[in-house]
User: Fold these one by one.
Assistant:
Number 1:
Amino acid sequence: MLHQISSNLACGLLLIGLCEFATCQDKPAIPSSAERGAGLSADEVNQGWISLFDGTSLFGWQAESDANWRVEDGCIVVDMGSAPGLLRTTAQFDDYELTLEFQAEKDANSGVFVRTSPRPTDPETECFEINIAPSSNPYPTGSIVGHVKTNEEVASDDWHRMSISAFKEQVSVQIDDRPSATLADTAPFGCGYVGLQFNSGAVRFRNIRLKPMGLGKTFNGSDLKGWKTYEEMPGRFSIAPNGMLQARGGPGQLETENQFADFVLQFKCRTNAEGLNSGVFFRCIPGERMNGYEIQIDNTTVDGDRNKPKNGGTGAIFRRNEARRIVASDNEWSAITLVAVGPRIAVWVNGYQVTDWKDDRPKHVNPRNGRRLDAGTIMLQAHDETTDVSFADIFAAELSQREKGNGVDPQNK
């Protein structure tokens, strides 16, 4: 029988902002010594931030023009090209905070695109473009092109910090922590890519990080309301006195009542002994035995090399795509972020992107046999009799879809 601790014995969870991981003392926290995404502090990882740029490669990015995008000295650099265009993320996002640093030469014309289609032709209808341009431009640095012009001049050649909040019908911009432009009551475009623009002149970007917003609490920390249990299976799920969700023994599964198709999922997990195996399944066929895509939880390596996962690695899509590096450690909390939009699946562990995979198989209702795009449940796995894994801070939200005709990536269907 599934053991549940009554809510009056469970440690009460503090109410926190949507999509934010709690960081108070009685909550799980990523240790400050943990490996993390480029430029992220342990506190930022605990709050749900992820790095979009690892500082060494263009993993997770795709060029949409012939511009000379490359990595130099920990920066994304561009300074020439046959045609203007974007370097954009392969993952799509909806509501979020985005911060980055940029350096542009005097006459450079560049920008940051949010909620964008892959190759937008009109920044007023296909995206929001936050401009990087001299004061002589109709929309100087910090303006929202086609919508809001700022009058504040930004010095060229220096490094500057840009912060963007895109939440529901409002987009706001800060440059060097000073308000620059706000666009309210606008029609949102739905989820889209983050893009860096090349138009003319040299520009550099670094410390690009994003925090999803608007996620809802999926596990309340006191009971299993909203989850389906499987008492006929040997795996056991229970609520610990500190409000953590414990998975022990196995096999077993715990399944959400809600279903998700294109969505963001954030959660924390901890393997409580060396070499344990678990997972989180998604787009599952409801009621079936762990029949969905699986985010692997397994920190074992080959010869102690974190670049060589032994069993897919934490953050891998098991049996489909290996994690490029083991970032998590046994006996420590890790923060995991999943973004699944159409066939494109991206996973971050402690803010570091380990997986960028597109399911190119033919469509099939059964994800074991082909590409499943339909909504499905989320399942937590108790893998085997040795399983001892803790889960906490589970948040998820469906991503809103772009309206027809707004430049949806045809490859994302």
Number 2:
Amino acid sequence: MKRALPVALILVACGGPPAPDNPAPVGSLLAQERPLPPAGYGTLRQDDIAVRIQTANLQMQLLPLDEEILRLLASDSYRSLTALRDSRGAAIEAAKERARVADPRLMFVTIFGKQPQVRFDPQQLFIASGNVFFRPLEIVPLSPGWSEQRVSPREQASAIYLFEPAIRLFEPFDVQFEGAISRQWGQSVRRLEDERSRVLARWRAENPDSTPPR
């Protein structure tokens, strides 16, 4: 299993600034310690929270498949993404066993071509969260031609990536793809937290004497 690397090591190797003396610890997400929002009340679209990176020849889109995040999407998006994730359940379980990780972060990744027959390297997708640089543990292809590692205009290649569970989904993190970096997730976190508050308020208005179901 490929290990996550401290961001400090990556920056030093690249000649960048050193990491803080007391980096934030990598632990359980706050999301794991609070109730899940009820399904069916979200209004966000996938485009509202997806991370996108443009290179000269490619566009990459990344969307976490965490249940708390999916429940904040509109009902059609929630159903389609949970169905996509669940349809690959056996392959995901096999990938978890290979990676020896019980509860990985699942990321739905789609790559679009901007030129004919553009090659891409699926391993060149990284996430930096909490001063730690995370490499993919496993990749579960969704597109039949994923193994060709080529994509053209009006085509797309998609897969589910498995990352270590220490990635903090409800804090800003950086995404790097083939050398390009996006910090867009910070905006997505704000939208998700605002939507979570609205979802819980709507649910409580309809169920004043109950707690949100898990």
Number 3:
Amino acid sequence: MLAFLLLCAQAAQQPPPKTQNEFNPAITVFSDILWRLDNKDVIEIEDNGDVIRKDDKFLLRETEIDFRAAIDPFADGVFILALEQEVPGEFEVDVEEGYVRIKSLPFGPWEEPPLGTRIKAGRFLAAAGRQNRLHTHDLAQPQRGLTVENFLGEHPYIGNGVSAEAFLPLDLQLTFEALQGGGFAMGENGTERPTFIANLSWFDTFADEHDVEIAGLALYGSNDEEGRRQVHLYSLDVLYKWKPLKQGEWTSIVLAGQVFYGSGEFEEDTDADGFIDLTGTRRAWGYFVYGQYQLDRRWYAGLRYDWTESLENRENEAWRVTPYLSLYVSEFFRFRVAYEFTNSDVHADDDLHTFLFQLTVVFGSHPPHPYWVNQ
């Protein structure tokens, strides 16, 4: 009997055997469906000259397959494959993100300041603001918005490169990224030159109910292969959230916004004789703000306002107002309806009324929502 008890004790001290499933990544599928109705034609001209009609479309806008796994105690791996649809019946396959995050290294001083740096290498969402770091299915509104599209593009700014995050005193976090050029609206032609981003953010919680996050960023890149036309983008990003200790899952308020200032050098052949006739710098301001109130456990109502100057001609201004209503049936199943009214000095974009109906579903292992959503 004593020998049997000793064998049982030894077996209890040994770790359970690993199963084959422990070596597999966690897999999540996000599916985002969008139906839009417009009162006039909405046309987008791609870089290759293709013309895309965006008005009055029902699209399986994006399906993401998200793979995540711990490689070892020091690093994690993320790979996200996206199937995107802008034209009914046509899908594009893209690697949305694919990177290794190095959390630590097996060196004694690494976890002590000024080290303790997290490194990310591969393809990832650039640190060009909180809005840009969100995938489409995590946005607070159905679309990224007029101002973000003007400075960064309709799709998020995704780059190939290296990112380093360091935690500093006073609750500060510094992120520095070196990326292959291109991939964002202001620097779409600078694919052969690097882009650099510095993002300094501060976050704190007051009285256990009030979260405040403020971030300032600077971007430097170019808009041509030779690097002659320099691009600068500066931004201030702010978010405030109130979530009461009592009924915290039923009530919350979010106020957020971002201000942009961009400048880009340009060269033009105005008379098409093969020689540059006009050079200079174009500058533009823009911002967006929104507020969101949680009505109860499942319902969220919000209002967003965008205003921006055109990067081509800052005398052309545009603004857009977007009320929206979100229903979280569960954390895996969400409906959203929104209305956009756009006023612009550009006639083709002026007096545009757009109704948006969005359905988002998630199945599989579920990564967390952004912290300002209670679901």
Number 4:
Amino acid sequence: TKTYTTSLGVLAALAAEIAAEPVLLRELHEMPGALERQLGRGGISDVAHRLADFERLAVLGRGPNYATAFEAALKLKELAGIAAEPASPADFLHGPVAIVNRGVPVLAFAISGPALGTVTEALGAVRLRGGTVVVIGDSATSPDLVVESVPEWLSPLVAVIPAQQLAAELAALHGADVDRPYGLTKVTRTR
């Protein structure tokens, strides 16, 4: 969790410095406030209760939030024991969308910007199949979990927070200890 977030922050800082664009540096300097506001947002418990009985979940993300879908899926697996599969919306529509017919819900990152169109298209296909959809997005996308409105290139920093909180809440609902996740080893030995 910390590794993902700090890695994103370091890459964003490096990109802003290399680009030497004052607007990028200003946007980056505004992120601590956005992160603090994001941590104070609610709604996690309601969404967790909606998803509590599901054992499987698809997680969709595109553009800057493609990696966020992978991080969310990892946390859902590690903490809550949910078989979460990440995908891009385009890949999901080429076959895996069939799992919706088997009752598998979809968690999607829908953030304003160029990547939003394909996410919206995939969610439309899920809804046509009667699937359960949970959206993490900015206020422009009518989400279940709202993220702070920030530039799209920085959106993974705020979008990952509700996903991580959701995984922790689902773990608690399943009776798991988030400080000692089953099967998670903090140190990996190689030979």
